[in-house]
Design goal:
This protein is of the alpha/beta class and about 375 residues long. About 55% of the residues lie in helices and about 10% in strands.
């Protein structure tokens, strides 16, 4: 029997109108006095009206590390050293995936508490105890899972409702991949027999992600476009942040990433994707993974939803064209690096497999 390690959730999770007003109480309960803040510049301004005045007064600009650029090993290691020297108790991350990943990595390296306040719902970064690292030029490098769960996650839905809708769409794409990638991983790792209970919970969460997103995404997107907090939007936010995080938290390697994320990683080698969001690229990766799996029924079903949601369905949507064979081979070579998770799928994967999937997908959408 294998040993299972489950990090199903943060130590504390709060969501609701006015949740951030209790931040000072939360810090007191967690015995946190000295804090540092990592924030996106826009995120900091958007969060300010929802934060306690005492907290705003306590945090000066000198105490904030603004998350310009990417989450890199060098950057997070440097912050960890600074926080240790200053004897910080907790790092508070405010923003999207970059700010939160920097926060988690710096806190983990310095052995500090991590308090995460997502201002967009583009990924499950607030939930998962891992950080995705990039090179300085924005090319994907690797991800690192940390030994402890995040300390506290606080979600104010109104901030997310006021954010640009493109971030919510990215979150929908990234979270929808949870179902398809976890399904692929389980098929590869557990071809027969009853799944362990912890993995059944992961699979239940993955199915919930898919069901909620297919049912509620259209209404949630409309709510976000109108800066409105609705029940549908809250369900989608929680599917992205909480339920999506539980897939990997309970499933471990069998609930993390497979083909769709490897295809994302490969596409970051194309300069044309430099301004595309992570989840936007992953949403295309789902389609390419389904093409590899030859699941044309599910592929056609998703294309219908993608059309409604305004999601990319072809390489041309990223200004990448199939007659540029050299670029396709560069992308496919990165997709199929030895360390990539696409090799965890049961299918045999190589450069030609990936390129054929791209071409097959173009035939579906043209």
């Amino acid at each position: 029997m294998q040993i299972a390690t489950v990090k199903g959730s943060p130590s504390h999770y709060q969501i609701g109108e006015g949740a951030l007003k209790h931040l000072a109480e939360n810090l007191n309960d967690l015995h946190v006095e000295r804090i540092a803040v990592v924030a996106g510049r826009t995120a900091w301004e958007k969060a300010k009206p929802y934060l306690p005045a005492a907290f705003i007064d306590k945090v000066g600009e000198k105490d904030i590390h603004f998350a310009d650029g990417h989450c890199t090993v060098e950057r997070t290691d440097k912050l960890a050293r600074i926080y240790q020297e200053k004897q910080i108790d907790a790092v508070i991350g405010i923003g999207g995936g970059t700010a939160l990943d920097i926060t988690k990595a710096a806190a983990a390296n310095a052995q500090l508490k991590s308090i995460l306040i997502p201002t967009i719902a583009a990924t499950c970064a607030a939930w998962t105890p891992l950080s995705v690292f990039y090179q300085e030029d924005g090319a994907h490098s690797h991800y690192t899972e940390f030994p402890e769960s995040n300390t506290l996650v606080v979600v104010e839905p109104a901030i997310i409702a006021e954010a640009p809708v493109k971030y919510l769409k990215a979150g929908i794409g990234d979270t929808l991949a949870k179902f398809y990638e976890a399904r692929s991983l389980v098929e590869a790792f557990y071809p027969a027999g009853t799944l362990p209970v912890w993995l059944q919970i992961s699979q239940f969460a993955a199915r919930a992600c898919k069901d909620i997103l297919l049912d509620d995404s259209e209404a949630a997107i409309q709510a976000c476009e109108n800066d409105q907090v609705t029940d549908a939007l809250i369900r989608v936010i929680e599917a992205i942040i909480a339920t999506g995080g539980m897939v990997g938290g309970f499933g471990g390697k069998a609930g993390r990433i497979a083909g769709a994320h490897s295809i994302h990683n490969g596409l970051t080698a194309a300069p044309q994707t430099a301004h595309s969001l992570h989840g936007e690229i992953v949403s295309y990766g789902i389609l390419a993974q389904l093409a590899i799996e030859q699941d044309t029924e599910e592929l056609r079903k998703l294309l219908g939803y993608y059309e409604i949601w305004g999601f990319p369905t072809s390489l041309a949507d990223f200004s990448i064209y199939t007659d540029d064979r050299e670029l396709l081979e560069i992308i496919a070579a990165k997709v199929t690096r030895t360390e990539e998770s696409i090799h965890l799928m049961k299918e045999e994967i190589n450069v030609n497999t990936v390129i054929e999937a791209f071409l097959q997908l173009e035939n579906f959408t043209n």
